[in-house]
Structures are given as structure tokens and as C-alpha cells.
Specification:
Number of strands: 17
Largest sheet: 5 strands, parallel
Helix content: 40-55%
């Protein structure tokens, strides 16, 4: 077998990616575009796992005048041999290895309390000061500056100093190198997202606002900065007065091809590993994201899919993206959905579209202020894509759709999880009592009420109703629920039976789906006839059960009708 080029599953750092010979999809021309556009501060917002950290690491490797621990200068040009940026022109290559670079990731601030998150940020800031501790050598810094610098290394600086720590580090680096500084901040919104879900948003927002303002607005030592995250947080909330900020969201055409994989890149990837025959499956599951006017694939999922197929770990596609986060945004949507929103979720899962106004300037504080805000979060974090847009009354309206089968599976699993938790929290003893008493109208009312109050998918087919009704019944404490078991001449849908036989009860339930509202009664009759024709009570009678109640249940969308046939035998 020929040697396989290593597949970069979980590789986030450019030097490791290129230096260790992993398959790399070249995104280096982003460097050219950044230098051409000349924006002082650029904020890229992209969904998680779309290569933001790898891009930041690539920028660091290209721009940094990196001084190694032994005091020598690193030659990082070797990591760009054969890459597209090398053919872009001298006006871009002259910037290679010329700047001190501050690289900071904020993703470790995902902690339960503000104190823990703040301490995590302190530790990351200290690591960056340590990485540049060579500035303490020589006479570039004054003694008082060296003392302050050492306090960040030792993590003894006063809290107020941390708010301006990047500005101070920039000044020290400029003094030493006699060159302005490039600042790269990755996962900038993780502390804010985490703070929102753990109830300390205001404290964290206050710190991050001061931290960014000093580093990116009032920093005279700044050459340029690139910030990456999932969401654009309102400028009033975080980027106060930062008029040199260029936001590049998934709505923008610029830089669109640098995050995610294009169709051409995926085709080459699959060909390289001799699995081009899987292209349709890969497209259905992981394509469909639209950044500006370019359609891209989820890179995390494609890389994991290729790896699993090449090494024969699985023969089926998986929702790889769902395992990288709690998917708390979808949880929020479903948990707080009203009747209209539940209907919209059903439409999306069925493959339809919904239209919503889009506002880029939102805060986590506003996530539940209106349902539209939550749709905004879902769009910008990759759970929905825009298939069309229109402009009306100073507002952009997007026609939204679930991007692919992977994301649809996340919605479905979250709906099932929500439904399961909802059932656990409810007491359905009235439904069980109604089955025992033969109260068909009451059974119908309870089931219909639950259908009206839940989210449906699978296009209202029989297996959906089967799973739904089994879910309603499975947490009862009196009956064992059996499903799709052989009995007599066929398989019944559902059976409830007590552990006790001699004085116990059995409920046989057969389900049908009507084509229209007028077919409910006919469906119930057909279900009862099927119970008799296939003798579903045969095995139950052999076990010794004598009190057997038979129900035909028919559904049409969210309507339910129930009819019964009671059989009592001599004891």
C-alpha cells in the first residue's frame, strides 16, 4: 500500500500542519488580501471549527520576527515554500518575518465562574509575556517597565493592569524591535458566550471591553490586528468607539473562500485519498454553507469523514460537528419555542425555508429578548444558511434553511432530547388511567394536546407517531411497554402489560395514519380489524392474561382519534 499523506484531524497550528507533512488546503492568499485592504483591525466571524485558529496561526508564522529561546531568529519562510502566497509578488513577501506578533486565544476562558475565567485569561496573558521575555534583555526598556513586565510573567500585576496588558506588551515589543506590532486574537467571543450561559456576562463584558479598547483602539504601537470568533458582538457592548474596525461576517463577499472548503478543494481532497465516489454523500452531509456568494463545506466534518473512510473506521457519515459543542443555541431555541416557532422548526427540518430579519449587532444579553435574535444567532453560528435575501425598511431579510443533513441531524437529536426531558417532567397517570378505563375521547384529547405542544418531523409518517406515543408511555410506573414484537401472525405496534398476570391488564395499541381529517374513523376501524386478523392477543393469552383491551389509534397531522374493543374472558 502506498504511503498515505497524514490527514489533519484536530491539527490547528500551521507549523505543525505544514512541518509534519499533513494534507493542507492552501489558504495563504488571505495574507495578500489583508495587506491589500489595509484595514487596521479586521474581525472575522465564522462558525466554530471552520479553520479560524489555523488561519491565525498561519498569519503568525508569516508575519512574525520570531526570536527563539536561544536568542536566534527563526526562519519561518520554510513553511511557505510552494504555497500560493510565494507567487503573489514582492510587495507582499517583503512583510514576511518583519513584525513582532502577539498571539492570544481566549478559548480557555470557558469556566464556570468569573473568577475562574479571569484567572484563565491571566494565565494566557502571562504565557505571551513569557514568550517575548527576551525584551527584558538589554536597555530597550526602562527599569520600571521591566518591573511591570515581570509582574505579568509572575501573575502578580494588579487587576486594572490586565485590562491594558496587550497595549503595554505592544509598547515593549515596539521599543525592542523598533517596529510596530501585529495582534492576533482568536476565539474572542468565547469568554462572553460562556459568561452568558453561566450568569456573569456583565462582569466579563466590562473586562473584555477595556481589554480590547486599549489593545485595538488607543494602541499607538499597533500595525494591524486580526480578531476571530463566531459572532459579531455589538460595538456598543464590546468595541466601544472602535472606528478602525472592519467586520467580515458570513454575509460579506470578501475573504469568503478562506474559511471552509470550496467544491474544488473538496474534490481534490477526495481524489487524493481515492474516495471521489463518496462526493455525493459528502455534499449532502457537509456542504451547503454560504459565505458571501461562495458555497463552502464544513472543513472539520470533511476532514474527519475522509479520515474515517480512508482508515475504514466507519462506512456511514456521522454528525462530526455536533460533538464539538453543547449546541446550546439550538437548545435555547427549542426550550423557549412558542407555537409559531415550533411550527417553523418543523418546516426547517422538513427542508423548507423561513424568512427572518437579520441584525449583526446583537449581544448575548439579548439572545432571548426576541425570537428573531435567536434566529440571528443560529444563522451566524452555522446552524442555518441564507438562500435568498431582500432589503426592506432599512432591514435585511434572509430566507433561511438548514444547510445539510449533518445539521438537520443535530436539530432532530435536540428535539428528541427536549421531548424526552419534557415527558420525564410530566405526569401521564391520567393517560394510563384513560387507557384502563376505555375513555377514548380522553385518550384522544391528551395525545392531541401533546402533539400540539411538541415539534414534529419525519413528515408525519407512522414511525414518527409510533415513537411519539411510545415516548409518552415509556415512563409510566405501572406497565411494561413492548414495541414491534411478534405475536400471533404479525407484529403489533405497542403493548402495555402489567408484571402481574392473574389479575393484570394488557393494552394492545395499533396505529394508522389517515390521508385527510375525514379518514380518522376509518383508520381506527382498520387498526382494530388488523389486531383481530393477525391475532395479536394470541401470545398474551398463552401467557395467561385475561383482561385485554384493544385500541385502534389513527393520526392526521396533529389530530388523533381513538376507538376501542374490549375482550373479557372468564377467569
Amino acid at each position: 500500500m502506498d504511503k498515505i499523506t497524514p490527514i489533519p484531524t484536530g491539527i490547528e497550528f500551521y507549523k505543525e500542519m505544514v512541518g509534519e507533512g499533513y494534507y493542507y488546503i492552501d489558504k495563504t492568499l488571505l495574507i495578500r488580501d489583508l495587506l491589500e485592504h489595509k484595514n487596521k483591525v479586521t474581525l472575522f466571524t465564522r462558525p466554530r471549527r471552520f479553520g479560524k485558529t489555523l488561519v491565525q496561526s498561519m498569519l503568525k508564522t508569516f508575519f512574525e520576527k520570531e526570536i527563539l529561546p536561544d536568542g536566534t531568529l527563526a526562519d519561518n519562510s520554510v513553511y511557505f515554500h510552494g504555497k500560493k502566497i510565494m507567487g503573489a509578488g514582492k510587495e507582499y513577501l517583503k512583510h514576511m518575518g518583519q513584525y513582532p506578533v502577539i498571539f492570544l486565544s481566549l478559548k480557555s476562558a470557558k469556566q464556570l465562574t468569573y473568577e475562574m475565567a479571569y484567572e484563565s485569561l491571566q494565565e494566557n496573558i502571562a504565557k505571551e509575556f513569557i514568550r517575548h521575555r527576551y525584551v527584558l534583555d538589554g536597555e530597550a526598556l526602562l527599569p520600571v517597565q521591566k518591573e511591570c513586565y515581570s509582574s505579568f510573567i509572575e501573575q502578580t500585576a494588579r487587576p486594572a493592569k490586565y485590562a491594558t496588558s496587550l497595549q503595554f506588551l505592544s509598547e515593549c515589543l515596539e521599543k525592542y524591535h523598533k517596529q510596530k506590532v501585529i495582534i492576533l486574537i482568536d476565539e474572542y467571543d468565547v469568554p462572553l458566550e460562556n459568561a452568558y450561559f453561566n450568569d456573569f456576562y456583565n462582569e466579563m463584558a466590562y473586562f473584555i471591553r477595556s481589554f480590547f479598547e486599549s489593545a485595538l483602539k488607543t494602541n499607538e504601537s499597533l500595525k494591524l490586528a486580526v480578531v476571530t470568533g463566531c459572532l459579531r458582538i455589538s460595538s456598543e457592548s464590546i468595541f466601544t468607539g472602535l472606528n478602525n474596525l472592519k467586520v467580515v461576517s458570513i454575509l460579506d463577499d470578501s475573504y469568503a473562500e478562506y474559511f471552509g472548503f470550496t467544491q474544488h478543494e473538496v474534490d481534490d481532497f477526495l481524489k487524493n485519498y481515492n474516495i471521489i465516489q463518496k462526493s455525493v454523500e459528502v455534499r449532502e452531509w457537509y456542504d451547503g454553507y454560504i459565505f458571501g456568494n461562495i458555497e463552502v463545506y464544513n472543513p472539520w466534518s470533511v476532514v474527519n469523514y475522509v479520515c474515517d473512510n480512508v482508515y475504514e473506521n466507519t462506512e456511514f457519515p456521522k454528525p462530526y460537528w455536533s460533538n464539538t459543542s453543547s449546541n446550546s443555541i439550538i437548545h435555547e431555541l427549542i426550550e423557549n419555542a412558542n407555537e409559531i416557532t415550533r411550527g417553523e422548526i418543523e418546516e426547517l427540518i422538513e427542508g423548507c425555508t423561513i424568512e427572518k430579519p437579520i441584525h449583526e449587532d446583537v449581544t448575548y444579553e439579548d439572545i432571548n429578548a426576541s425570537q428573531d435574535n435567536l434566529w440571528n444567532f443560529l444563522f451566524f453560528t452555522g446552524y442555518l444558511k441564507a438562500v435568498d435575501k431582500r432589503f426592506k425598511s432599512d432591514t435585511i431579510y434572509l430566507e433561511l434553511k438548514i444547510p445539510n443533513r449533518e445539521i438537520c441531524s443535530i436539530y432532530r437529536s435536540k428535539v428528541i432530547e427536549w421531548f424526552d426531558n419534557k415527558i420525564k417532567a410530566n405526569d401521564f397517570h391520567e393517560l394510563i388511567a384513560a387507557f384502563e378505563e376505555g375513555a377514548c375521547d380522553k385518550i384522544s384529547d391528551i395525545i392531541t394536546g401533546q402533539l400540539m405542544d411538541t415539534i414534529s418531523f419525519y413528515d408525519y409518517k407512522e414511525d414518527y407517531y409510533h415513537g411519539f406515543l411510545a415516548g409518552l408511555l415509556k415512563y409510566n410506573k405501572k406497565y411494561v411497554v413492548k414495541s414491534n414484537r411478534e405475536s400471533g401472525l404479525g407484529r403489533y405496534d405497542l403493548v402495555l402489560k402489567t408484571q402481574r398476570i392473574r389479575r393484570g391488564n394488557v393494552v394492545i395499541i395499533e396505529l394508522k395514519v389517515a390521508k385527510n381529517i375525514n379518514g380518522l374513523a376509518k383508520g381506527c376501524a382498520e387498526a382494530l380489524e388488523q389486531i383481530e386478523r393477525f391475532q395479536y392477543d394470541h401470545e398474551l393469552k398463552k401467557e395467561g392474561y385475561t383482561n385485554i383491551i384493544k385500541y385502534g389509534v389513527c393520526f392526521y397531522k396533529k389530530e388523533c382519534m381513538v376507538e376501542k374493543c374490549i375482550e373479557m374472558e372468564e377467569k
